[in-house]
Amino acid sequence: MAVEDLRRSSMMAHLLDALDQGQDIGHYGRLTFAMIARHFVDRDELVELLAKDGDTDEGKAKSLVQQVEDRDYNPPSRRRILEWQAQQDFPICPTPDDPDTCNPYRELDIPREVLEDIEEYREQKFDAQETDEGQ
C-alpha cells in the first residue's frame, strides 16, 4: 500500500496536500495522519511525510510515529476526528458537514487485522460491562 491509496480519502488527500505545502496541520492533524497512514506506508516514509509539517522536524516526527506504534493506535473514528478538529485551527476534515466524508473506515481499505483488533476490543468491553452490571 502507498500514498496513492491514502489519496482515496478526501481527508487524507487534504492532509497530504497541506503537508506537501509545508503547512502546520496541528497536533491532532499529525496524530490523525499518523494513526491512519501507518497502515499504508512504511515508518520511514511516514516520518518523511510528517516532517514536512510546518511545525514538525524529523525528530518530532519520529517521536510521534514511535508513540503511535508503541500504543498500537487504530485509526480514529469520524466522531473523534471532528472532536479533535474543534481543538485546533487547522481543519483536519475539510468537509465536516458532509457525513460521508472523513471516515477512514468508509473511505479506505483498512487492513483486516486492524478491524479484527477493534472487534475484539469491543467484545471485551461489552463483556466487561455485562460483568459490572451483574454485580
Structure notes:
- The chain has one domain.
- Helices cover 61% and strands 0% of the residues.
- The protein has eight helices and no strands.
- Helix 4 packs across helix 5.
Quick tags:
135 residues, single chain
Distance between the termini: 47 Å
- Decide which structural class fits the backbone: mainly alpha
Q: Helical residue percent? A: 55-70%
C-alpha-based Rg, rounded: 16 Å
Q: State the major sheet.
A: none
Molecular shape? globular
Compute the number of structural domains.
1
Order of helices and strands: HHHHHHHH
Instruction: Count the DSSP helices.
Output: 8
Oligomer: single chain
Topology:
Blueprint (H helix, E strand, L loop, with lengths): L2 H4 L3 H11 L6 H11 L5 H8 L7 H13 L7 H8 L18 H4 L4 H23 L1
Helix pairs in contact: 4-5
In short:
With 135 residues, this protein is an all-alpha fold.
